[in-house]
């Protein structure tokens, strides 16, 4: 596969291929906890799905959280930087036989592990034919990898976007291959400011997911420029670096592992409204944690702003809610969500 960035960023790609293909053989080889930091508690049904993944596939996994959005049955999902395929095989169980999961990764050593265990997992899941495939390519060049426009319901990524030297291109390509109403749901590492060139060029820091971390404010700007809805922060946790040599180089910079959701929906076309969650999403029968601002409880009327109203009415979540215009009957259970701005939330984390 041809990557148009190869001439400019060849050294970074080679560093990644060497680090993830040869240096790292198992999770314990990592020199910091950046690539393994959990981001939220794992529901029981997902824990069961994790247990069905082959031990070697899990051992070669280097993500910064378990990236599993809700409402997945029958969906077509793309995993950017799928590595050994752990998340793909978990998602395979959650989308069911009628759904499909595609993993893309540039590291052949990782893809070899993922492909080796395809038949094993299909037998384990009781599927008649594979609903998972893995392709080699770059997350900045999905066209060259053969992925078509408007072909995926959901894109996930687990601690991989920070490894790209052109994050705008990653978001642009993701937006292109998503269907209208589709979602980019991804966990990654973010910095408290724009990193120095010394940090960006440090091979170990780059491989450890820190050297390529995006300033969190830049994500907000990039998403808007590409066409996505404003990023919705799902959760965030502080990254600690226990390696003194690496910490000395990082200085006062702080890092968080954060999960965001971005949607490909029309902007400014929906007014605020009241919504009531119906409780039909698997694993969220009592309440649905949409992001750090909104958690929807079953049969509770919640007033949402126009931005969230647009997301809910144009995405796969549309059938999971009952909608009514502002000022409609609220009843004693009617509530208004607390305002907890995405920017303020992350900023607090960075200052801790």
TrEMBL record:
It is an enzyme of class 2 (transferase). Residues 73-227 form the Methyltransferase domain. It catalyses: arsenic triglutathione + 3 [thioredoxin]-dithiol + 3 S-adenosyl-L-methionine = trimethylarsine + 3 [thioredoxin]-disulfide + 3 glutathione + 3 S-adenosyl-L-homocysteine + 3 H(+); arsenic triglutathione + 2 [thioredoxin]-dithiol + 2 S-adenosyl-L-methionine + H2O = dimethylarsinous acid + 2 [thioredoxin]-disulfide + 3 glutathione + 2 S-adenosyl-L-homocysteine + 2 H(+); arsenic triglutathione + [thioredoxin]-dithiol + S-adenosyl-L-methionine + 2 H2O = methylarsonous acid + [thioredoxin]-disulfide + 3 glutathione + S-adenosyl-L-homocysteine + H(+). GO terms for biological process: arsonoacetate metabolic process; toxin metabolic process. One of its GO terms (cellular component) is cytosol. It comes from the Eukaryota. InterPro entries: Arsenite_MeTrfase-like (IPR026669), Methyltranfer_dom (IPR025714), SAM-dependent_MTases_sf (IPR029063). GO terms for molecular function: arsenite methyltransferase activity. Belongs to the methyltransferase superfamily. Arsenite methyltransferase family. PANTHER family: ARSENITE METHYLTRANSFERASE. It comes from Mastacembelus armatus. This is Arsenite methyltransferase. Its EC number is 2.1.1.137.
């Amino acid at each position: 596969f041809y990557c148009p960035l190869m001439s400019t960023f060849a050294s970074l790609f080679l560093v990644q291929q060497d680090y993830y293909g040869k240096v790292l053989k198992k999770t314990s080889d990592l020199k910091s906890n950046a690539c393994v930091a959990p981001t939220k508690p794992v529901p029981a049904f997902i824990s069961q799905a994790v247990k069905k993944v082959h031990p070697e596939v899990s051992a070669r996994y280097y993500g910064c959280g378990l990236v599993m959005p809700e409402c997945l049955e029958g969906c077509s999902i793309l995993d950017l930087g799928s590595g050994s395929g752990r998340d793909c095989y978990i998602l395979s169980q959650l989308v069911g036989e009628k759904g499909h999961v595609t993993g893309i990764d540039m590291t052949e050593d990782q893809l070899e592990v993922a492909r080796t265990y395809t038949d094993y997992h299909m037998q384990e899941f009781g599927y008649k034919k594979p609903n998972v495939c893995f392709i080699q390519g770059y997350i900045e060049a999905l066209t060259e990898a053969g992925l078509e426009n408007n072909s995926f319901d959901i894109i996930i990524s687990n601690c991989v976007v920070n490894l790209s030297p052109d994050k705008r291109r990653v978001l642009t390509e993701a937006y292109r291959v998503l269907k209208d109403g589709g979602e980019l749901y991804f966990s990654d590492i973010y910095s408290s400011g724009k990193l120095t060139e010394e940090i960006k060029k440090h091979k170990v820091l780059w491989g450890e997911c820190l050297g390529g971390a995006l300033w969190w404010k830049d994500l907000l700007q990039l998403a808007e420029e590409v066409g996505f809805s404003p990023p919705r922060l799902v959760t965030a946790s502080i990254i600690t670096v226990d390696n003194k040599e690496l910490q000395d180089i990082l200085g006062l910079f702080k890092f968080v592992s954060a999960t965001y959701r971005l949607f490909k929906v029309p902007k400014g076309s929906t007014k605020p409204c009241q919504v009531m969650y119906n409780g039909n999403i698997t694993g969220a029968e009592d309440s649905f944690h949409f992001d750090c601002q909104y958690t929807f409880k079953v049969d509770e009327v919640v007033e949402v702003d126009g931005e969230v109203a647009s997301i809910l009415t144009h995405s796969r979540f549309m059938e999971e809610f009952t909608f009514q215009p502002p000022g409609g009957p609220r009843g004693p259970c009617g509530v208004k969500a607390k305002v907890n701005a995405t920017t303020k939330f992350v900023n607090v984390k960075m200052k801790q």
